[in-house]
Amino acid sequence: MTRTAPTRPRPTAPVSGAGRGSARPRRNSLMMADPRKRGTILLIGTGLVLTLFGARLVELQAVRGEALASAALDQRLRTTEIPAQRGAILDSSGEALAVTMEARNLTADQTLVTDPVAVAAELSPILGADPEVLSERLTGDRRFIYVAKGLTPETWDRISALRLPGIFSEGTTRRIYPAGDLAANVVGFVGSDGKGLGGMEYAFQTELAGAAGTQTSEHGPGGRVIPTGANSVTDAQAGTTVQLTIDRDIQYLAQQALAEKVAQAHADSGTLVVMDPTTGEILALATAPTFDPNMPASGSDADRGNRALTDVFEPGSTSKLMTLAAVINEGKANPYSAFTVPGELTRGGKAFHDHNAHGTLHLTLAGIMAESSNIGTILASERIGGRKFSTYLKKFGIGQPTGLHFPGESSGSVPAHGDWSATSFPTIAFGQGLSVNAVQSASVFATIANDGVRMQPTLVKQVSHADGTVDPPVAPASTRVVSAATAKQVRAMLEMVVGPGGTAPMAAIPGYRVGGKTGTAQMFKESCHCYSGVVASFIGMAPADAPKLVVAVSIVNPRVGRFGGELGGPVFKRVMTYALQARQIPPTQTSAPRLPLTFGG
Asked: How far apart are CA 575 and CA 271, in angstroms?
């Protein structure tokens, strides 16, 4: 067996710099290479970071810079509304019934109020408010909150002088009614936000309000305005001024006379209308009870409305004016025409009577008007028939809007002729079975006063703008209802009502010829379509030979007294006498005609 000799290992040369017998791996060369690699890596990393920072900087400054700057500015800007000056409401002579005064709303930024208790203690005596309530309102993280509204500028000056942190104000206005309750039910009132809630304030809300402006201010630390900051203002546009046809002096006396009679009669309410029949202008529109628009919450909902337009009632005997005018206009009778009037009349199976029981009467048409005979009126109306009569009711404006566009106005009602029953015609003829409001009733008499032409009632004389321009008045719509000759004959008959033998001699005015008609009827409630209460009325005109004024008085649910002559007549006399003098209408120079009321039969 052959053996191979073992191979002897070759000696290894020692590594330079190493001690004898050392056999370490090649670490030193690697350590010498690491700093260079690390430097390269560090350089690359730094470059990447700087690139990212640079890109971000470019994004923030070049790409999003404008948007971010705008956002930062927005945080420093506060925009407040500049309220427009609300237009005034004036009477016919230009006297103010509603005006707007400068005021301030007190506001707070809760995040800037460092000590709500201390700030509340400072504000409490000035505002007359509970400090605990104020403290609670000032505590929180809301940037804007109202503390008080409608402060006078003087009150704000006192608060501003305290330089309380987080307390600011904004401009606003206060609505003032310098005449108190005068024409309050016509003018209306505004809410806490300054918007109209009733009457003409509501009807003309858009025109009166104008257009609000804005003020934007830049605020620095502590919420103070930076004078040199980004501030801008958009001016507000003032509202229009509405001038009414209401004569404040006549309105004042009308309210006083009406309120006294309502109190004396222990009545629920009353209305009074004064109208110029030649123009349709309403010179006074009074209701009782009324309210003070400076404190609207102190009155009831009913007292804040305008009963002369919202409440409807059966006209009763005042409606006989339309019936007899239609009969005369159709040529079927005249004031001298004779009618035999029985004590009872049956139509459609129903027995009709007059308000006072009587036997057979021999009355002229003038006598039927003066005596206010229901039966005589039915007999006269049958000469023209129900269909023809219904067309006259429409021409007189019954069951139609007055044209005033007043909030809450009721148009009343009258059944269509096709719906009349056998008893409808006789009932409607003497004033039952239809409903009207007080202005509609006054308009009927104004039509006769104006020679048979119905002028659409109006409450607005003119509207003027802040720039001084004035909207030209719109001519009122007019409707020929009866001829001038018919109107003249009816006026002569109305004078007999106020004369001896009539139902309202207490309405006579010395020196003036006066014509009118009494009425006592049931009040119709639309809410339940039922009758509830009684309305005693008197409507008249003067001077009767050439009427310049119509006054309509209605007393609702009187408990002392009942009839229109005794309740409405004296109020009519008082108001009409004053109005004739106030408008300088001279006494009548002619004598009243003496029409026969009866005939020998």
From this structure: 13
